[in-house]
Amino acid sequence: MRLTTDVVVTTTDGQVLLIERGWDPHKGSWALPGGHVDQGETSRAAAVRELAEEAGVYAHEEELVQLGVWDRPDRDPRGRYVTVAYHLTVLPGTAIEPGDDATRAEWWPLADLPQLAFDHAEIIAGLGGPEV
């Protein structure tokens, strides 16, 4: 099993930050910034690191609010992956810059999202409250 983290970054005017994946699985698809939790790292620290590496957005750990854990066994084609998802709210116009394995980073209206990789649509839906 691998532990990952994903970050839902939204603006106060209803946009969400998505990155275009630069490699498989889901190369060319839109996804939330995120990635693997490194040895000796908390999921929250990994979320801060991945957000900076993939989208050029810098946050402090205490700014991230945990949304929940997504652990459906088939959520990732590479095998068993469990993700801890976080939420960060920023102001409209926050600068973003793709990096690491992202080929693009863009703001998308929450009401008009593209098809997303993995179960990232479910994670974004988690902004409405915990799963039941």
Overall mean pLDDT: 93
Q: Distance N terminus to C terminus?
A: 24 Å
Could you name the CATH class? Alpha Beta
Radius of gyration: 13 Å
The helix-strand sequence is EEEEHEEEH
- Counted up, domains total 1
What characterizes the major β-sheet? 4 strands, mixed
Strand order of the largest sheet: 4-1-6-5
What's the total helix number?
Answer: 2
**Gross morphology:** globular
How are the SSEs ordered, and which strands pair?
Blueprint: E1 2-11, E2 15-21, E3 30-31, E4 34-36, H1 43-55, E5 65-70, E6 81-90, E7 102-109, H2 120-125
Put the structure in a nutshell.
The chain has a single domain, classed as Alpha-Beta Complex (Nucleoside Triphosphate Pyrophosphohydrolase), CATH 3.90.79.10.
Protein architecture, described:
This protein has helices spanning 43-55, 120-125, and strands spanning 2-11, 15-21, 30-31, 34-36, 65-70, 81-90, 102-109. The protein has a single domain (2-128), classed as Alpha-Beta Complex (Nucleoside Triphosphate Pyrophosphohydrolase), CATH 3.90.79.10. It contains two helices and seven strands. The model has no long low-confidence stretch (mean pLDDT 93). It is globular, with a radius of gyration of 13 Å. The chain starts with a strand and ends in a 7-residue tail after the last helix. With 132 residues, it is of the alpha+beta class.
